[in-house]
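Table S2 (text version). Query chain:
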Amino acid sequence: MERPALSVLINNYNYARFVGRAIDSVLSQDAGNIEIIVVDDGSTDQSRSVLETYDSRVKVIFQENAGQAAAINTAVASSTGEILCFLDADDWWAPGKLSATAAAFRGNPQASLVYHRLRPTLVDGTPTSKPIPRTLCSGALSPLLTRSAGWWPFPMTSAVAVRRSAWDFAGSIPEQFRISADAWLVGIYPFLGDVIAMPDPLGFYRIHNNNWYRSTEDAATLRRRMTHWQHTVEATNQFLSAHALPARLHLADHYPYRIASAKLQGADARTRFKLAVEGLFFAGEPNLFRRTRDSLRSARGLSRLALDVGLSEAAK
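Corresponding structure-token output:
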């Protein structure tokens, strides 16, 4: 049998109400020569009964709960395609996503990662805001990531595809990334080849309470994010060192980490001014307008958010 050109890898955990739409959006693609692999990571809802309705059209693997990274690793190990396309079970794709992705890889043999924008939606699928990420980054991004401690306007998992040869070089996603496994994909693969950004929103990102990020911030959320960013920088440096790649990341260059730290510790006027100036030169946002806007917003919000965090802490 001909080897699939594209492997679609869906990770699912307790998304019985969503996973059918994700699979159907793949089955309706116009690209040929694809395989679909769903790894159910120990779901306790009705996921099994939903997945079993797809018969031979989809390869389904059930495993004990081990986290998103482990589910993706299992899916990749069971796949054979030259291009690996990732899809979270609560998201779905627009028609033409796979053919556009394949064409982008064919057009640049040096590309290790291809991505596109996603359109955020409410739980019911209603579009709710502009496609993300707003700023697109293409080409050799390793210098940018080196200056920003790995931060950039990165895509979410369901927008990412990587070349299998790059995956084979990088190895499996460390299982410490039980959630936000996309932090590994978007943090490592720009060091292995070019990145291609497609401007169209070729997928849909469902916003609901189980997502990693929240619309409101409290001390626990800030600490969780800071710990995640710290561990991601450490894991990236370990990878770069192990593969004799010269770049190294420094947490002091991670502007969102510094803002979160200031929110927790409190920031006087001088600190807010200093952070606003630093934000103007932060390499992680290449777009000058958005960089300026974000740095001013962050600095202005420090005193109010620090107060909110302090009140939250005092209420414990």
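Notes on Table S2: The first strand starts at residue 6 and ends at 12. Residues 288-314 form the longest helix (27 residues).
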